[in-house]
Amino acid sequence: MRSYGQFCAVAKALDVIGDRWTLLIVRELLLAGPSRYTDLRSGLPGIATNLLADRLRQLEAAGLLAREEAPPPVASTLFSLTPRGEQLRGVLDALGAWGVEYMAEGPAPGDAFRGRWLAWPVERFLRDSQPDGQPVSLELQTGEAPLLVEAGGGEITARPGPGTEPDVVLSGEPYPILGLLSGRIGLAEARRRGVRLQGDAAVLARLAPAAA
Question: CB within 10 Å: which end of the chain, N or C, has fewer?
Fold first, then answer.
């Protein structure tokens, strides 16, 4: 990558992470943890194979990414963020919070989607209105894999993967599910748009959207 040639912290940071796709690779590793090359390709629809390889080498050279050979049964190279790479979580949190408003316009034709990408807007929109209550979980079945949202002690966390026994399951297209969780539409309207609910609907009331 060409340097901006400026003695400025922002410019120096962009010298390292400003290339196209770089921060999205970091996103995938933050959301999914150590990943195989094929996992990253799946989470980055549209990236060319040679470009992904180049970006991974650049991140490794910058000390943001490490690779290791996993033993059987994985028997594959795993890519993971170094502690320095993990420090980019705050950058992605800020970008996700800033960019979530653009998701209100709905997906553009041809937009790809992965279920785990809802983690940032979900953690921004929702709040635990009963911090002293028993922990509850909400499974979102949209995209190619579920996302589990857990609430307890006043904290909201979201991680890829199914729940063991989630209190409520929402399934359907991502846009109306996002509308429901953000408070832009109600449950009746979400159902009209194809969202299905299984389990305790009261959990949704507990996870009422935070004030805009």
Answer: C
What pTM, to 2 d.p., does this model score? 0.90
Sheet holding 35-36, edge to edge: 35-36, 77-81, 65-69
Q: Are 64 and 81 in contact (CB under 8 A)?
A: yes
> Which residues are CB-neighbours of 73 under 8 A, at least 6 positions away?
none
Name the CATH topology of 9-87: Arc Repressor Mutant, subunit A (1.10.10)
SS3 207: coil
For residue 2, the tally of other CB atoms under 10 A from its CB is 7
Q: Which helix (H) or strand (E) holds 149?
A: strand 147-152
Q: Say which amino acid occupies 7.
A: F
Helices 22-32 and 9-17, packing angle to 10 deg: 80
Q: Residues of the chain with pLDDT > 70: what percent?
A: 98
Tell me the average pLDDT across 5-30: 97
DSSP helix/strand/coil, 184: coil
Fold of 102-206: Nonspecific Lipid-transfer Protein; Chain A (3.30.1050)
For the stretch 91-140, pLDDT in tens is 999 999 899 888 888 899 999 999 999 998 888 889 999 999 999 999 99
Domain ranges in the chain are 9-87, 102-206
- Say how far apart CA 121 and CA 187 lie, in whole Å: 18
Do the strands 147-152 and 155-160 form a parallel or antiparallel pair, or are they unpaired? antiparallel
